[in-house]
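We append the chain.
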Amino acid sequence: MIHFIKTNSKNIDFISLVKQLDAELTIKDGDYLDFYHQFNGITNLNYVIVAYKGPNAIGCGAIKSFDKKTMEIKRMFVPENARGLGIATQILTNLESWSSDLGYSKCILETGKILVEAIALYKKCGYQMIPNYGQYKDVENSVCFEKQL
């Protein structure tokens, strides 16, 4: 049975999962790693979801306010040994619901073009590609998405 908890960035399991995510991205992002790292800190993330199968943390994601109507999805990750179980979809759905409950009407996110599984997930979940926003505006390696809630 998979269950989800709402927490924040001080959660030890979230911190551990983000370290695994960063290790994976170190390999995949290569030359872009330093650029992305400056925008992916987890200090002060107040809205974090951690997925558990029994006592084991098997996925995470977070949201942070982008503007008055928009939450930005951050730090989505499911370790390789837990992929294919629909966990990422469930985390994303929980983050969207939480955003809506907090009064936000839209979610946005950025991911790397090389992360084809992530792109497929977001498209499957109803996200539409948008022009790159904010700090990602002129980053050729990035692709951005949004979804109205």
